[in-house]
Structures are given as C-alpha cells and as structure tokens.
Amino acid sequence: MGPEHIKGRGGQDGSASDDTLLDRELLDWPAPLRWREWILRVEAVIFASTQPVSREQLQRVVGKTCSIDLLIEDLIEDLRDRPYELVAVAGGWQHRTRGRFAEVIRASNAPTRSTAAKLSQFEAAVLTAISYFQPITRNELSKLFGKQVSRDLIGNLRGAGFIASGPRSPTPGAPYSYITTKHFLTVFGLETLRDLPDMEALEDAGLLGRHAD
Known about the structure:
Elements: H1 31-48, E1 53-54, H2 55-62, H3 68-78, E2 84-89, E3 92-97, H4 102-108, H5 121-133, E4 136-137, H6 138-145, H7 151-159, E5 163-168, E6 176-180, H8 182-187, H9 199-204
Antiparallel strand pairs: 1-3, 2-3, 4-6, 5-6
C-alpha cells in the first residue's frame, strides 16, 4: 500500500491545479518519495494541532486527488511501535498517548496537553446523562437523578465546552435543552456519539445512578 495508489495531481495527467500549489514542488519526485513526504506532512499537521484535524484540512497539504484514508493507514502502521498512536476523533484525527503509558506520565508529574476538565462525580454523571439522552432539559435531568441539577452545574459544563444549548423543549415555559459538543467528543476520544459505551454498563458502574454525589 502507498505509492501505487498515487493519482496525478489535479487530474490523471499529473498537472497541478490552483488548489495544490503547496504540492507543485513534488511533481517531479519519484512516487515512493512523494508518498513518504505526504505521510510526513500529514503527521506534522496532526502533531502540531491541539484539535482533531479534519479530512478537508489534510487535503489542503496533499491535494484533493490523494487518498487521505490510505495515507492514514500507512501513518498508523508507521506509529505501531511508538508510545503514541493516531486515532479518529470528532470527525478528524489526533495523536493520543497509548493507554499503557498513562501511569508513567502521571508519575512524572510533567505538564501535558490534556484539555480534560476536572469534574466532580455528579458533574460527570450529569454530562454522561446529557450525552445519552440529548436533547434534555435541566428539569428532565433533575427528575432522572432524583435531585436538583443546579444552573451552576450546567454553567460549569458549558464553561468547559462540553455542552451547548439545544432546541427549546415543547414543555410549558419552552426551556432550552442541552446537547454535547464536538469538544466533548474530542476530550473523551470519541469519533461520534455512536462510540459511547453501552448504557447498561454505565448504570452498573453507578455513573447513571440516582445517588451520585
């Protein structure tokens, strides 16, 4: 897999189009070297970004006719023996440290690029409920947990960028509902909401129970 999948730049004849100016210098490179350069460029862009990098953003540095999926496959293979990996998150790709190194990183006490906010157990439970039952109102959340979900708690989750206002509820007073954001997917390493864990497992773990503190 790799160079044999390269298409001509800007068309089958290999001519460069206006949207691939960055890549013109590679037109005369042998196919294997050009493919390797594309992989390095993709890795550099993803490494430098603090947010998941979308397919459209990667196409800007390799051109629209180059297969991003095949480049990603080869890059994942290149990183197989590295302490970090490439993961699909929130509609893009991002570097993540492999789980088996988490304890070592914590022990070092070194600053990390993690953007995860520190949530209380109850805040985490409310965020989990929103992710599964969205759009959901604050009153509905209070009924779900059997105790008041405060405006301050909702404000904390909004301030952390995990939730946003959703459509108004058809219930009396038409309160706003709440939904999760792309930032939520990014921080928790999810490509889409379909990647959420099984709800029954979370209930068994007490994350959706009515008595979280």
